[in-house]
Amino acid sequence: MITKARIKDFIVPKLKYGASAAVATSVDYFVFFSVVHLLTVNYTTLAQVLAYSCGLLTNFFLQKSFVFELKRTISKTFQLSVSFSLMGLVISSTLIYLFSQFTFFLEYLFLTKVIVTGIMFLYNFYTKRFAFERKRLDNFRTSTTDKD
């Protein structure tokens, strides 16, 4: 049954995550475009790696402080978060590389970054929620344990 409480429980965490992601994304974009504009050669993939790494660290500390409830040790959470982020880095860097093979997207790098950022939002939310709160794993354990 859909209730106001269930809607709130679904939307509020994503809004909090969205706010922390907006700050981290600002850091990411600043670093990305700074590197792209400072270098005279086309290093969009290198710029993406550096920018994503800065955004990753920013996002982790914001998520730890304001978004998720820590249900693991900080060390384990950081390891999982970084692992998921590294997978996200591979995905996003590959997308940046593929898009930048087209003249249009190379000329409009901001649009390219916006598209890739949008694609990565849900991946990042659900993997980080798992890293911090064990949501998926706890639900899976409960349902399989009850049947045994």
Write a structural description.
86% of the residues lie in helices and 0% in strands. The protein has 148 residues and is mainly alpha-helical. Helix 1 packs antiparallel against helix 2, helix 1 crosses helix 5 and helix 2 runs antiparallel to helix 3.
Main β-sheet description: none
Q: What low-confidence regions span 5 or more consecutive residues with pLDDT below 50?
A: 137-148
What Rg, in angstroms, do the CA atoms define? 18 Å
Mean pLDDT: 84
Count of structural domains:
1
- Beta fraction: under 5%
How do the SSEs run, as a string of H and E?
HHHHHH
Question: What overall geometry do the principal axes of the alpha carbons give?
Answer: globular
* N- and C-termini, Cα separation: 27 Å
Helix fraction, binned, reads over 70%
Count of individual beta strands: 0
Count of DSSP-assigned helices: 6
Secondary-structure class: mainly alpha
Task: Give a brief rundown of this model.
By secondary structure, the protein is an all-alpha fold. It contains 6 helices and no strands.
